[in-house]
Amino acid sequence: MALNILSPAEIKAISFLDSTKSNRLPKLQGGLSLKRKDCGGRRIQCSVQNQNQNQPPPAWPGRACPEAGRKTWDGPKPISIVGSTGSIGTQTLDIVAENPDKFKVVALAAGSNVTLLADQVRTFKPQLIAVRNESLVDELKEALADVEEKPEIIPGEQGVVEVARHPDAVRGVTGIVGCAGLKPTVAAIEAGKDICLANKETLIAGGPFVLPLAHKYNVKILPADSEHSAIFQCIQGLPEGALRRIILTASGGAFRDWPVEKLKEVKVADALKHPNWNMGKKITVDSATLFNKGLEVIEAHYLFGAEYDNIDIIIHPQSIIHSMIETQDSSVLAQLGWPDMRLPILYTMSWPDRVYCSEITWPRLDLCKLGSLTFKAPDNVKYPSMDLAYAAGRAGGTMTGVLSAANEKAVEMFIDEKISYLDIFKVVELTCDKHQAELVVSPSLEEIIHYDLWAREYAATLQHSSGPSPVFA
């Protein structure tokens, strides 16, 4: 199946992606212009200079130091979990179960898996629960009929918000997928809760709005992604201005050993065969396209304040080094570990402390047994997602959320076999290209959510046909 490409009259003369490759440097909407920059012998890149607004303050300005006088916990630290029945949520609860002296659950929110949510209630005894699908409230109550100490139930989106800002929680784990995680995260920040961040859209789409809010309420955003957790761990105690470069490692996904010419033959089952990680369908496809890494570049910019010219991607097939930083004196610091999401989740929950982990459930890394670690540069032809992500990041504002939403919709269409694998890139490019005319540099929360929905709807209009697949240069 292939994408029915729009007619030339419907596509601008300079497309979104082409504007980052061409010698022509157009002025974009929203007071943005492209500036050519020579990166000291590295490849020439375009930097978008924001002429109207200052960039939002980073969550961590290249360093991480606990504030003096910030409250510490002698007993179990109370947490809430939004997305408790998903991958992040269940792994978080595994950590709580293993460390009942360190953490306790006060509130849980799920989407529609009421059976698993009921089991979690029996085990962890939260005070408040929510099910986002309001039609399942009666089913949830029936599943909890035998529970003696029943929690309060608040259905729907409002219930998810109430879980996120539960008065007894000091940290909230945001494991919900998509822009659905924005409102509860904002509510938690406004209630003064530190955020254990596993929801990409919070920063990729919401960064321009969320980061100033976090600073206003003195809230810490603690990254749960393995790559950003690695960077976060490496910047602990750095002096101001010491961070020079961020190096994001990527496994290369399912097609790291495939020649570019063979990608036109990719089937859904091929894209879901990740060599290292056991993840959901969407993120596994993102790993195959490397869109996950492009989105992580944007997230790293918002989290740590690094300029896009100072964030690099390298392929590291073993997934043992989760990411690195380079300091001003050219020292490189790395965080290593087995591919296990529980470690970065645990660190968001315990920071600035470190929690002892059993060798039985948390195998220790043995480098001698591992043998060797290898690296190579990513192929921009095989992974056009990187150019798209850097371009969206430099455009800023609502463009990064549009990129993420368009990719999510394109992946959904690919999994449903409505478009081909290569069409994922073109759907995203065309959606970002279309959005240039309406780019909002400093969006409100309502504008962020509006353009997230717009991007999904627009991407869905790019229907498939029996014509030839697009060719990527």
Automatic annotation (TrEMBL):
Gene3D superfamilies tied to this protein: 1.10.1740.10, NAD(P)-binding Rossmann-like Domain
Domain 1-deoxy-D-xylulose 5-phosphate reductoisomerase C-terminal: 221-304
Leader peptide range in chain numbering: none
Molecular-function GO term, any one: manganese ion binding
Residues annotated as domain 1-deoxy-D-xylulose 5-phosphate reductoisomerase N-terminal: 79-207
Protein localization: Plastid, Chloroplast
Keyword NADP appears in the UniProt entry: yes
Record-listed E.C. numbers: 1.1.1.267
Keywords in alphabetical order: Chloroplast, Isoprene biosynthesis, Manganese, Metal-binding, NADP, Oxidoreductase, Plastid, Transit peptide
Pfam families assigned to the protein according to its UniProt record, in alphabetical order: DXP_redisom_C, DXP_reductoisom, DXPR_C
Highest taxon of source: Eukaryota
Cofactors named for this entry: Mg(2+); Mn(2+)
Gene Ontology cellular component annotations, sorted alphabetically: chloroplast
The reaction(s) this protein catalyses: 2-C-methyl-D-erythritol 4-phosphate + NADP(+) = 1-deoxy-D-xylulose 5-phosphate + NADPH + H(+)
The family this protein is said to belong to: Belongs to the DXR family.
Known role: Enzyme of the plastid non-mevalonate pathway for isoprenoid biosynthesis that catalyzes the NADPH-dependent rearrangement and reduction of 1-deoxy-D-xylulose-5-phosphate (DXP) to 2-C-methyl-D-erythritol 4-phosphate (MEP). Required for chloroplast development.
Protein name: 1-deoxy-D-xylulose-5-phosphate reductoisomerase
Protein species of origin: Populus euphratica (Euphrates poplar)
Gene: LOC105108784
